[in-house]
Specification:
The complex is a heterodimer of chains A (226) and B (86). With 226 residues, chain A is α/β, with parallel strands linked by helices. Helices cover 23% and strands 24% of the residues of chain A. In chain A, strands 2-1-3-4-11-10-9-6-7 form a 9-stranded mixed beta sheet, with helices on both faces. A two-stranded antiparallel ribbon of chain A has the order 5-8. The longest helix of chain A is centred in the last third of the chain and has 14 residues. Chain B has one domain: Phosphoribosylformylglycinamidine synthase subunit PurS (Mth169, Chain: A). Chain B has 2 helices and 3 strands. The chains are: A alpha/beta (226), B alpha+beta (86).
Chain lengths: 226, 86
C-alpha cells in the first residue's frame, strides 16, 4: 500500500504532508517528482501545497501540464483517491480533474490565518470518518483561494453532493463559502486549507482531532497500513 | 514567411469581479479627482512573436495555442488578440 506525494518545482508543503502521512498515520508514502511516471500500484495520490512554478500565469496552470498529471488522471479514472491541498487543489481545477477555478482572494491579500470548516460531504475517501456539519479548525495560507463556479455549475455541485467543505464564515469571497469540492465520482477531493498543518496536537492549539480524521478517513479507505 | 507580433489580453469576463481593477479605480484614480472615470479592468498581456503566412493565420494560431494550453481560464476569463507585422 503506497501513497504518492507529487512534488513540483515550487512545492513547499510536500515534506509536511509526507511527515503526517508516515510519522503520524503510519502510511507508506513516497515522493514522486513531476517529470516521473507514477507506478500503477499506487493506492492514493496527494498533491501538496506550495507555489508550483512561482504561481506564474495563474496558480497551478503550468503544473497542470506536467507529465505526471496524465498518470494522476488515469489513476483518478480508476477510482484511486486523490487529494489536492491548496496549490494541489489549484492544480486539480486547472487540469480539469475538479470543476471550478480559484481566483485571487477578494481582499487581494495573501491570507494566512486559522479558520473553521464545515463538513458538507462525509462520503469521500478523505471525509468518511467525519460527521456531517462537523467543524474543523484549520489554517489557510493562500493568495488565490476564492472558489468560483457559475450558477448552473453550482446547482450541479449541490445536486451531486460535490461540495465537501465550506467555510463557517465569509473568508475570501468564495461562491457559497466553498473551501473544498470533489469530482462527480467523489474520489478526487480538493481543499484550500491545510490539514497537514492541523492534524497534530503540538501544532493545533484548538483541536487537532477533526483534521486528523481526514487522514484517518484515508487509512480507512485504503484499508491497510505499511 | 513574415514575422508578426500577436498581443493577447487576458481579462476577467464581465460579471466576474476584478478586485485589482476596483482597487486601482477607487483607491488611486478616483481619489478626489477623475470623476469621469467609471470603471477599470485589469488584465495580463502576452506578446507572441510568430512566423506565419499572414496576419489572420498568425492570430488564429496564437488563439489556438491559448485555448489548447489553457493560457486563459475560459470559465472566468476572455482573451482579445491584436496583431501587427514586425
Amino acid at each position: 500500500m503506497k501513497v504518492g506525494v507529487i512534488v513540483f518545482p515550487g512545492s513547499n508543503c510536500d515534506r509536511d504532508m509526507h511527515h503526517v502521512l508516515t510519522d503520524v498515520f503510519d502510511l507508506n508514502a513516497e515522493f514522486f517528482w513531476h517529470e516521473k511516471n507514477l507506478p500503477e500500484n499506487i493506492d492514493a495520490v496527494v498533491l501538496p501545497g506550495g507555489f508550483s512554478y512561482g504561481d506564474r500565469l495563474r496558480a497551478g496552470v503550468i503544473a497542470a501540464h506536467s507529465p505526471i498529471i496524465s498518470d494522476v488522471k488515469k489513476l483518478a479514472e480508476k477510482g484511486i483517491p486523490v487529494l489536492g491541498v491548496c496549490n494541489g487543489f489549484q492544480i486539480l481545477v486547472e487540469s480539469g480533474l475538479l470543476p471550478g477555478v480559484l481566483l485571487k482572494n477578494e481582499s487581494l491579500n495573501f491570507m494566512c490565518e486559522w479558520t473553521n470548516l464545515i463538513v458538507k460531504n462525509n462520503k469521500t475517501p478523505f471525509t468518511n470518518k467525519l460527521e456531517l456539519n462537523q467543524k474543523i479548525p484549520i489554517p489557510i495560507a493562500n493568495g488565490e483561494g476564492r472558489y468560483f463556479v457559475d450558477e448552473q455549475t453550482l446547482e450541479q455541485l449541490e445536486k451531486n453532493n460535490q461540495i465537501v467543505f465550506s467555510y463557517e464564515n465569509k473568508v475570501n469571497g468564495s461562491v457559497s463559502q466553498i473551501a473544498g469540492v470533489c469530482n462527480s465520482d467523489g474520489n478526487v477531493v480538493g481543499m484550500m486549507p491545510h490539514p497537514e498543518r492541523a492534524a497534530e496536537k503540538e501544532i493545533n492549539q484548538i483541536d487537532h482531532k477533526p483534521s486528523s480524521l481526514i487522514f484517518e478517513s484515508l487509512v480507512e479507505t485504503v484499508g491497510m497500513k505499511k | 514567411m513574415p514575422d508578426f507580433q500577436v498581443s493577447i489580453v487576458i481579462e476577467n469576463k464581465p460579471g466576474i469581479s476584478d478586485p485589482e481593477g476596483d482597487t486601482i479605480l477607487n483607491d488611486l484614480v478616483l481619489k478626489g479627482k477623475n470623476k469621469n472615470i467609471s470603471k477599470i479592468r485589469s488584465g495580463t498581456i502576452l506578446k507572441f512573436s510568430i512566423t506565419e503566412n499572414d496576419e489572420n493565420a498568425a492570430k488564429d494560431e496564437v488563439l489556438k495555442i491559448c485555448d489548447e494550453l489553457r493560457i486563459y481560464n475560459p470559465l472566468v476569463s476572455k482573451v482579445t488578440a491584436t496583431v501587427e507585422k514586425i
